[in-house]
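Ticket #4471: structure output looks truncated?

Reporter: J.K.
Steps to reproduce: submitted the chain below (1040 residues) through the standard prediction queue, then opened the result file.
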Amino acid sequence: MIIDVSTIIPAVAFILYVFFVIFGFLQYNKDRFYWSFQLYMIFFSIWSFGSMMMHLNSCVMTPLFWNRIMLVGLLSAPFALSHFIVDILDLHKRSIRIFTGASYLLIIPLMYLNFSGSIVKNVGFTADGTFFYQLAQGAVFAYSISYTYLLLTLVFLLFGSKYRPLQKSHKNLVLPLVGVVIMLVGIFINIFPDLGKYPIDIFSSTINALLLFYTIYKYKLINYSRIGLNIIYSTIMAVIAMISYYLIIQFIQMFNSDFAPGDVGQLSLILGIATVIIIHPMRNFLAFLIDSVIVPKRHPYQMTIKNLSKKLTTIVNLGELGDEVVKNLSTGLKTEWVVFVAKRQDNDDRLLLIANNKCNTKLTIGDEVVFDFPPYIDEKLHKLRRDNISSIINVSPGEQRIQVSNDLPAADVLIPLIFRQQIAGYILIGYDYTKSLITEIELEALEILAAQSSLSLKNALSFEQLRIQGNELVMSNNKLEAIFNGIASPVCLIDIDFTIQEANTAAVNFFGNNKKSLIGNKCYRAFFQRLRPCSFCQALDCLHTGVLQETEANVSDKIYSFQFHNVRVPENSKSVFIEIINDITEQRSLQEEFVRTEKMAGIGTLAAGIAHELNNPLAGISGTAEIMLSEVEDTSPHKEYLQDILSYSKTAADVIKELSVYSRKETSKEIQQVEVVRTLEFSLRLAARGTDSQSITVVRNYHALPMIEANEGELQQLFLNLIVNAIQAMEGKGTLTLTCLEHRDFVYIKVGDTGCGIPEHNLNQIFTPFFTTKAPGKGTGLGLSNCYNIVEKMGGRIRVKSEESDGSEFTVIFPLNDERKEAINFSLVTDQAGMNDVFFLQRKVLVSEKGYIEGTIHRAEDEKATHILAFKGLQPVGTVSLMTSDNFWPLPIARYFDIEPVLKTRNCSEILRLAVLPEMRNTTVSIGLIVLVFLLARSRGIKDIIIDVFADDVKTIKLYKKFGFQEVGTYYSPSAVTVLALQSETPMEKDQGQLRHFVRPLFNRLRPLFDFGDQTQGVLDEMDRILSADHEPSKSIEFA
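Returned output as attached by the reporter:
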């Protein structure tokens, strides 16, 4: 085995080429990866490995075998090299590409000549260990082919250098040109065996590879990783160091024959590797020594740029980038002021002040900066922008400062930040006048900063744009989701496989599932519990035609309408459609009912005509009977018959008249004086004739009533609907009770029955339009809704009491005059109707205005609480609740606020949920509820009173504080709520002036306005107890 220069050179070359191949493949699927270059390096690896093994003369195969392996790489490499040059020159001409690809076919005859022994006949070593080889007849042909393609490579390089420069100029191709020429010389020497026995060919090809690598590295023709570049760089350094040591040793031996270090090749290899290992730390140490000791002025600036560069690579926020740049420049370069300006995202023609350090300007961060450059500055900026270079523009000796904007002072340095030949921002720097001119070191540091800041600004603007687009995308998505979920009809996004991709809130509620059970499920299974797609489904037709499809179908005794809308999707994506579903069962029933109503209206019109036709013969019958009756003797047996005829004809005429009156269209909406009992009886007669009422007993409890102001037609409709409902509920048998009475200026009309009653869960819905429990076709669900609207329009109330199997009683209450409609009064809630009023007001005020959650209204504890209602006439306008510790402990407020440290005793109560309609606030209603609930709590012996009031209700808080309540804290539910407590006598009880001028008039005003039943006297006593502290009562002053 021979280890000398002839084996070391190809061995080192082989290692270098293998690194090229490995790190080249690591860049696969990345930018600037060339298969041709990889193939070129593989051929060189085969060439160098064969040369190494051939000169090594090992026991592994013969030198002739390794020679032929070497020739595989040597003869094939020119083809790959030529292909690679075409790739980096970016030559897309089809003829060149076809020629280059087809040239690889020439490798086949070359390999035949190689392995058949037609290029090299023999290779080996002489007895004294000298290497030799003998060429065969085909050698000239084979090497001619290689020369041809190397010359073709030169042509490509020369053509590319003149016609298509790589990145910046044609000088990039000078080194590859030199490398190919050297390679030509090396291969040419192989024709002469006396010289070719040395590895000159592989040495020349290695030089070519090194020059090519330098070109690739300098101009970034291939994106090697940092680790790969360092390893390749270190290998090259080791080769150069090894060659240098070898030449030095040979030179010394020429003058000193006694100098014999042994195997010079191995020693040079070891020294070369050792040099690479120690050169990196030595270089860093020397650089630090020069910067810190030898030339110390340069070091601070380099450290500033180095530290700033590290930070800038990680900053993607525009504001942080600007702050970091101006801060480091101010401290590191000792500037007087620095500003950082960048372009807006929404308008590339405008720039904003991003960061400012000590610059004397009226502009604030975020303001627009208007630039007006002098002509010479414009010219320099144009040139920098054209060359895509971020450089500095500074003031030369004797020149004035650069004035670029009226909003900023004149600057000493202007740094345009350029990328993609566009100026994205500026850095402006001002120095102190007392400072000397900018040094070369500072200029060098600023040049480095300009390039780094330009790249960082590009990244920051890109991330800013991504952030804005991301926010817009989120906003757009939220809007679409809100619109999607805001659609009242069930809407689902479904794919062609009938799998639900998305469903809106209405769909989730409609089908009674949670969203997770819908998404990903088959629509026919999730909606209708089917095992296969619905027979009426038009989805596939919609997807096929792209046109809206509509259909209706009966499913489980319900009628549904379906709409299918095609959705455009990207090519090769799964088709999807939108399905809109509506339950139209009730709509269809209403349509049928309206058809029947139209028919009945037609019958009514016909009946009016028939009545007119019947009245004429009836008049004739009555007239004839009266004439005959006057001529018949009293003793005649026909007289009784004639009297019956006359009576029956008058009865028939009355019936026709009453039907005509009710069916007649209202032509006037006049309010007039109406007799309630007469109208009720009229409605009863109409109801009796239109229903099966023969077995029903009518009980009348009529009291003497004054006339009321009403629309008689509407009153008839009201009473008729109530009586008909009662008769139908009794199914033709039972007792119908009609009651009319007057109480405290209000008229009460009650319609009671002994029918089936109304289930409790339906009581809150009976006045809802279209709600009905009757079979389809038996009712529209509009009767009681119309009754409610009529009563409300007249300023009255309608209430219902009902128990299943015990019948129902509807009570209609009307005020006798307008004064009663406006009267304010307070009462305790004692029945379910009052509770419904309380929850109605809480929903209207607390949920709609204050953000309460619907689920917090009508809690279980509300049933035990004491509620006060304020009425305007008969309409509820305000409410407040009282919860005492004997029924509630801990008090409800304890869920949100720790009240126990505040309380002195457990004999306490909480006043809560004050809800007053907006139009009644700041009136007797608000102050009356506040005062009466306070007096009610005191009348029960409560010592500590807690109240929570919305923090924005300043007037209510001020009023409570006037009564002596003190603020003890705040909580959020969900709005800010102020907690107040009263634990002693009110200050007003000790203030004679307050008692006399405020409390007494207020109590006098409230006394006639409330009726708390058996608790009324306790409240009145508490009023008297408070007023008893006023020893000199004066004439009461009416409180307004």
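Triage note (M.O.): checked the attachment and the full token line is present. Residues 225-296 form one domain.
Status: closed, working as intended.
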